[in-house]
Backbone:
């Protein structure tokens, strides 16, 4: 029996679990009446209890997957496009990806056996889709983990005034990431999530206030030299600059694929929409406020990451406070990527939840490989802005746009044959738009990101791969 058929065969709800009409339960019962999750199997004494998160912890984890590295690059969208188009871009893409996040909840409840984009690919496109989405999701999580190592090394260089080789700081980031990502369940990782959200928001708030009260940003000509701030409500931007801005904002909002894994570890998955509403309200409002304020006070002297925009002292303070949040980002994304591979390998095996040698050897081995690959990526492309833009285009669009459109159409397109109303056609148009728009940005964004990286190397403004040079600016 195939994996999908096997799971669906045991997905009827137990009598003790109340399930809304037309909604599958994520639980079934074995012959002894024990609770068996549609993803993790046996849940109970002697097993790892994965499904243990309440809705508030879930909201924190969802928020941390969004408010992570993206917030450090968000003001650059306004710098490239101008205040009004940049703000509209953040809000518009925020609402668009909120719909994608909502579709994740719908699809998960309709298909309780889904744990990650790997399972989504199998349902949508069969075995080929499963392999493609497995590779894409794992590489996406590894890429974001690698992107986190870059600001971690920048933070250490800033705080210590480049006390040692940049590669050493990245190694320290990788070691800390491996230690944290090895924690088995998201319920326990949520503690790191709390710390990470608080650290990132505090540091960004400090830099926002700092650029507002200081005479000039850190990279502007310092006193007594004069300086002139250049800001625009509307700014003439090249096509590639506009595409890079879109890709950067998508990167800041593309936590969507991790939402399946997070939702799978909830105690009550029916509370997902409540967690999502809290998450996206905080994310969109924070991105918008931070982007507008930092751009207004820094203008053309905006740093990337944005934490470097304040003066020398505040720069050290901001990076020092943000450091736990940067580690939390690396840990969370590495954990989610490794968990996908682990569940894929161990599914339908007792070693998925049993505290066995095989369980620990495979789990720690996968986390180690993911961390190593992320480290290599970070050192190969050791600069923040172009890397973020490239990741957003290459993986973000597929993971949070095209896939969500196909998910909704898979579950609802057949309704067109049964006299659908206006709301159906509006939603169908929205999801077709997600697919078409996402595909366009995928092609154009990869090209724009590659051009930015080529130009950065050609201009000599960035360090070479695996360089010991100071990257703190």
Residues:
């Amino acid at each position: 029996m195939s994996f999908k058929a096997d799971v669906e065969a045991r997905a009827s709800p137990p009598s003790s679990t109340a399930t809304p009409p037309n909604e599958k339960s994520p639980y079934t019962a074995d012959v002894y009446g024990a609770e068996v999750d549609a993803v993790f199997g046996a849940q109970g004494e002697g097993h790892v209890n994965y499904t243990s998160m309440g809705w508030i912890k879930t909201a924190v984890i969802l928020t941390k997957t969004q408010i992570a590295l993206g917030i450090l690059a968000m003001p650059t969208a306004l710098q490239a496009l101008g205040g009004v188009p940049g703000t509209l871009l953040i809000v518009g893409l925020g609402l668009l990806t909120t719909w994608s996040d909502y579709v994740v909840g719908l699809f998960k409840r309709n298909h309780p056996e889904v744990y990650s984009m790997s399972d989504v690919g199998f349902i949508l496109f069969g075995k080929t889709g499963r392999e493609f989405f497995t590779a894409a999701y794992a590489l996406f999580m590894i890429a974001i983990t690698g992107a986190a190592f870059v600001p971690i090394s920048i933070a250490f260089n800033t705080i210590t005034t480049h006390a040692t080789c940049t590669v050493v700081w990245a190694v320290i980031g990788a070691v800390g990431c491996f230690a944290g990502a090895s924690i088995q369940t998201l319920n326990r990782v949520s503690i790191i999530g709390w710390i990470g959200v608080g650290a990132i928001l505090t540091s960004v708030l400090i830099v926002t206030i700092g650029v507002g009260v200081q005479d000039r940003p850190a990279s502007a000509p310092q006193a007594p030299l004069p300086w002139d701030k250049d800001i625009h409500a509307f700014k003439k931007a090249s096509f590639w600059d506009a595409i890079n801005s879109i890709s950067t904002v998508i990167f800041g909002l593309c936590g969507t694929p991790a939402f399946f894994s997070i939702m799978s570890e909830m105690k009550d998955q029916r509370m997902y929409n409540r967690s999502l509403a809290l998450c996206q309200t905080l994310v969109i409002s924070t991105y918008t406020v931070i982007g507008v304020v930092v751009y207004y006070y820094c203008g053309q002297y905006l740093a990337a990451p944005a934490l470097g925009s304040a003066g020398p002292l505040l720069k050290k303070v901001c990076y020092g406070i943000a450091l736990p949040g940067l580690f939390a980002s690396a840990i969370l994304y590495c954990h989610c990527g490794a968990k996908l591979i682990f569940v894929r390998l161990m599914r339908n095996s007792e070693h998925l939840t049993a505290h066995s040698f095989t369980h620990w050897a495979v789990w720690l081995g996968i986390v180690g490989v993911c961390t190593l690959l992320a480290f290599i990526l970070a050192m190969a492309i050791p600069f923040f802005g172009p890397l973020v833009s490239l990741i957003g285009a290459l993986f973000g669009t597929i993971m949070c746009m095209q896939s969500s459109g196909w998910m909704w159409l898979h579950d609802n397109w057949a309704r067109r044959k049964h006299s659908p109303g206006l709301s159906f056609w509006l939603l169908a148009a929205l999801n077709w738009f997600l697919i078409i728009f996402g595909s366009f940005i995928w092609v154009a964004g990869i090209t724009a990101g590659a051009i930015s990286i080529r130009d950065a190397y050609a201009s000599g403004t960035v360090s070479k791969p695996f360089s010991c040079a100071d990257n703190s600016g």
Observations:
- The chain has one domain: 52-223+230-459.
